[in-house]
Each structure stands twice: as structure tokens, then as C-alpha cells.
Design a protein that fits this description.
Layout lengths: L2 H13 L2 H8 L3 H15 L4 E4 L2 E4 L1 H24 L1
Antiparallel strand pairs: 1-2
Helix pairs in contact: 1-2, 1-3, 1-4, 2-3
């Protein structure tokens, strides 16, 4: 599992659009889409549904989102310890 793919997933969930997530990550929106596709392939499940131009987590996506947020907090804690 690639942590960067989870980071892109988190930003898409927060921003609600590929363009918004791409802005936050300072990348092109196609990069966000590619990372999401890779994560969905790894997990074997769709993580978002599109509705009204926005990306909404599927039930599986919502559970992945919850766990990914905790992982993000843990990674930030490790970085703080190292500093």
C-alpha cells in the first residue's frame, strides 16, 4: 500500500473535487485521478461516487477515510517526534 495514494485520497475527500484536491497538493488533477485509481485497484473497491460534480465517499470509502485520517495523524506524530 502506497501512503501517497492515501494522502491523495484524503485530499480528494476533503476538497470534494479533483481540481480542489490538486490545488491543495500542488499537482495536476490527472495525478489525483491516477492515484485514486491506483488505490481503488489495490483495495479492489470503488472509494467515491460522483454526484453534482462532487466526489462523495462510498460506504467503503467512508471507512477507508476514517482509518486514513488516523494514519495521517500517526505519521504526523512520528514526524514531530523526529523533530
Amino acid at each position: 500500500m502506497d501512503w501517497d495514494n492515501l494522502r491523495y485520497f484524503l485530499e480528494l475527500a476533503r476538497a470534494g473535487t479533483l481540481v480542489g484536491a490538486a490545488r491543495r497538493l500542488a499537482v495536476d488533477h490527472t495525478t489525483v485521478a491516477r492515484r485514486l485509481r491506483a488505490l481503488e485497484e489495490t483495495l479492489g473497491a470503488p472509494l467515491f461516487e460522483r454526484s453534482d460534480g462532487r466526489w462523495h465517499p462510498t460506504p467503503v470509502g467512508a471507512r477507508v477515510l476514517e482509518r486514513s485520517a488516523r494514519i495521517e495523524e500517526d505519521v504526523a506524530g512520528v514526524v514531530r517526534l523526529a523533530e
